[in-house]
Design a protein that fits this description.
This protein is of the alpha+beta class and 304 residues long. It contains 8 helices and 17 strands. Helix content is 28%, strand content 28%. The structure holds ligand PPE. The site of ligand PPE has 15 residues, from helix 6 and strand 14.
């Protein structure tokens, strides 16, 4: 990864190489922390963080679910995100806030555990590759099931949740695919290892409800974009075979942005190229994040 100068740790700017933790940090052992993934983009009016408030709120909601008392307010988290971009002189970057139980106590109970917060930022290109963004990716339905809601709460971006995502992602990569689609405990499509999923059938946009998927902020943005173009968006469960026969499919996430799916389990989606509706949403999203769509400027939080 590309190193930057500073990482914000509990309110202080710490040089990148010194931003370390003790090996007995609670979250390192039990996966108890929560995190966010946010992107900052260059616009003609300067760098802007995409939907910063929603991300900061979701971070605190995740912490609330995990019963973590965060020693910073939402405004302080937001200002730390702006500050880390500024201090590192970054125009475009990925921002990673992390709330974790720190050093000082072992054992599963977290009562009395110290809560630490860090915010890092670094340049991070397209997550699933430039070629993926342009031409679409090949995905595989995972043999690993998405968390049942009473196993791991999926509204929380809990660090430990992502062991499940990594198993699915590595299985997909090792099998020659670029991303994993995860089925919920009932066998319906839920989400990908780190993205939400949409299909298009007969001009209708369908995405699984967020009952057991993350309430994706990119997902929410794309739903708004789709509605603004006059499309019907259905939030309903669908099966892997509905996905196989979809006209178009794409996934959404902060890191992955809007990435078309061109093949699922060796079955071509549409004509094997990103479909027209996917392309329309994708280009609107890219224009919006770069401040080129007046109605979506509300999503931008300028760094300066
Ligand atoms: N589902 C999961 C499981 C998920 O992790 C993400 C974000 C999403 C959906 C999309 O949510 P949103 O970013 O709000 O649209 N995944 C983050 C972490 C990726 C990583 O590899 O790390 C991200 O995209 O930043």
């Amino acid at each position: 990864m590309e190193e930057t100068k500073f990482i914000w740790m509990n309110g202080k700017m710490v040089p990148w190489k010194e931003a370390t933790v003790h090996v007995l940090t609670h979250t390192l052992h039990y996966g108890t922390g929560v995190f966010e993934g946010i992107r900052c983009y260059d616009t003609k009016d300067g760098s802007a963080i995409f939907r910063l408030k929603e991300h900061a709120k979701r971070l605190l909601d995740s912490a609330h679910i995990m019963q973590m008392k965060v020693p910073f307010t939402q405004e302080q988290i937001e200002s730390a995100c702006r500050q880390i971009v500024k201090e590192n002189n970054l125009k475009e970057c990925y921002i990673r806030p992390l709330v974790y139980f720190g050093y000082g106590q072992m054992g599963l109970a977290t009562k009395g555990c110290k809560v630490d917060v860090s915010v890092a930022a670094w340049p991070w290109g397209s997550y699933l590759g430039e070629d993926g963004i342009k031409n679409g990716i090949r995905v595989k339905v995972s043999s690993f099931t998405r968390h049942h809601v009473n196993v791991m709460p999926t509204k929380s971006k809990t660090v430990g949740n992502y062991a499940n995502s990594t198993l699915a992602k590595m299985e997909a990569l090792n099998s020659g695919y670029e991303e994993a689609i995860m089925l919920d405990a009932q066998g319906y499509i839920s989400e990908c290892s780190g993205e939400n999923i949409f299909i298009v059938r007969d001009n209708e946009i369908i995405t699984p409800p967020t009952t057991n998927a993350l309430e994706g902020i990119t997902r929410k943005s794309i739903i708004e974009v789709a509605k603004s173009f006059g499309y019907t968006v259905k939030e309903e469960l669908f099966t892997r075979d509905q996905l196989y026969i979809s006209d178009e499919a794409f996934l959404t996430g902060t890191a992955a942005e809007v990435t078309p799916i061109r093949e699922v389990d060796n079955r071509t989606i549409g004509n094997g190229m990103p479909g027209p509706i996917t392309k329309k949403f994708q280009s609107t999203y890219f224009d919006a994040i770069h401040g080129k769509v007046p109605e979506y400027k509300k999503w931008l939080d300028f760094v300066k």
